[in-house]
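Entry:
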Amino acid sequence: MLKSYRIGRVLGSEIRIHGLFLVLVAVMAGSAFMREDAAQALWQTLILATMFSLIVLHEFGHALAARLFGIRTPRITLHVMGGIAELERNPKGSLAEFVVAFAGPLVNLALAAALYLGGAWQNNKAPAGTLEGYMEMLLLLNVGLFLFNLIPAFPMDGGRILKALVQVVTGERIALLCSVVLGQICALCFIGIAVATLQPMLGIVGIFLFAVAATEGGRHPLWMFGYPPKSRQA
């Protein structure tokens, strides 16, 4: 099994990169250089590096919001599915859950708004490889990360936000159950779209979300098909 590697410490949080993430970056960069000319390959590699830099900023949004509620974030880890801010404990109460969950997407929204107001949007006409093209790409990446993370698929930010809102009315147990069910339904939709459009990466994301949605909710990944938690298995 590949492990994660420490690359530094920022604002009290250790930044780590998982070995599979390094493999993914190497494969994608190598593929770009095999398919494209050097200039285009470098451009695509820059886009990839920028996207994961934005993911780190996104995770620091969660970390700084958690600090408002007295929760430290010992580690932020980049992996093949994005990033994880590892909080020392889960936020307690709907308000804390909502604020911590929404803080990540809010970082991307704020960056996108600043870029748009600064004139970065060129109606998708800025040429690649130029500063204008980079700024427009940066704007689009932030908008994409904002919208993607608001998909109500637990344990993504959108799923956690939904849980925090539903919890106000139903209580935590029912809210968590609803979030797990909706998260797994969204994951199955991802898998179906991946099969229909031949997008393997989307399928991997769907499988990952399907499993994690259930296990973070204290259930077996296939609990909807009658599988009990491992602790209750014979």
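The mean pLDDT is 82.
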